[in-house]
Amino acid sequence: MAGSDRGDLTRTAILALLGTVGPLSRSEIARELDVSPATVTQLTRELMGHGMVEELDLKPSRGGRPAQRLGLVGGAGHALGVKVTADHLVLVDVRLDGEVLGSWVRPFDPGAADAPGDLADAIESVLSAITDGPPLLGVGVGVPGGVDDQGVGTVNAPTLGWQAMPVGERLRRRLNLPVLVENDVNALAAAQRLYGRGRTHRDFLVLTIGRGVGAAIVADGRVYRGARGGAGEFGHLCVDPRGPACGCGARGCLEAFVGSAGLLAAARARSGDAPVPDGVADPLGAVAALGRAAVGGDPVACEVFAEAGEILGRATAGLVNVVDPEVVVVLGEGTADWPFWQVGFDRALRAQLYPGRRDISVEVESWDETSWAQGAAALVLATPFDAAGAAGEQGRLVRARLIGTTP
After folding, report:
1. Could you tell me which residues are beta bridge partners of residue 78?
2. Residue ranges per domain, the chain?
3. Using one digit for the tens of pLDDT, what is the confidence trace for 1-23?
4. Cross-strand partners of 141
5. Any alpha helices (H) in 107-221, and if so which ranges?
6. CATH fold of 2-72, please?
7. pTM for this structure?
8. pLDDT, tens digit (0-9, with 9 covering 90-100), for 48-91
9. Cβ-contact 312, 254 below 8 angstroms
10. CATH code linked to domain 197-364
């Protein structure tokens, strides 16, 4: 039994290596994992037989025989990712290599009497539409709040009105599948580690701007979650204790200044004729109108974004000075207007950074609404590559499904 366990762990390690580093030769795999070439040959043959690994091109040699490189088969498995918002759900079906196979939007009321049951209904409606394809490895759920343990999935999310909500437990009971639940920004960081900038950086920050403001800290290749899973609440850093009230109950939080509601309040305070419609139900829609005004050269709109960028830049500099990342990745709905944020952001960031860190790269990525849900799917898809075992028993079940040891 011990030998079998060791084989399963090594198979998983091979998949993890190919998933995070990319195609490698058998000898490179043996060297990286510190196992014998004969073991690698045997296990990769098995993985190829299961359709999880394939032979690719020959790697050029400096005189010896060219080495055959091996790569991960994207169709070896897939996961469903779910992003929970205050009024709807976004669901995506994602392959192991990150390719999105389908996306869906469902209405959702987190304040409903049986919100977890409604969430399960929406997931089941999508799963019923996925009738064939690679093995379903599990379901990942991203929420705008704190999660005690992604493998347990108890959620505290004030913006949803959830306190100690047993989301993971309820979904596992209904779906009979592995379920991982995580803060939505941490989920984006997992996706970056698997498919984005994190493949070449082990220490980086993910910042999100949009309805709110969030951060995820990746240190030595792992998302830092803190003692209770609440690390990264960057939006609730106090900028000015006399500032506007925040949804968390405090005053002067960063999010209260530069989240969507803060941007709209700043625009209206500057001019009664500001290009922002009053009473708009969707703050992101109103911010989009503000962005269009900025594109058109409206001075109020341009000033609002520049000032928000300056506030965000100063706060980001403090975070960079504390955690010393290699790169900062900016994501979220707000990136659509990034050129107008950047006017204030870059200047404030560089001015406040500690000497020696002022050349840090800030990389802004393209965005659409499915990006949040792709991050949630990455919670599941990254599990086979997670040597730390952050997903606990749910991670073991995901790995078993990928290896093919469960029905």
Report:
1. 95, 136
2. 2-72, 76-192+370-403, 197-364
3. 233 334 456 776 787 678 667 78
4. 82, 181
5. 115-127, 167-175, 184-195
6. Arc Repressor Mutant, subunit A (1.10.10)
7. 0.82
8. 887 778 898 776 655 566 788 998 877 778 999 999 999 999 99
9. yes
10. 3.30.420.40
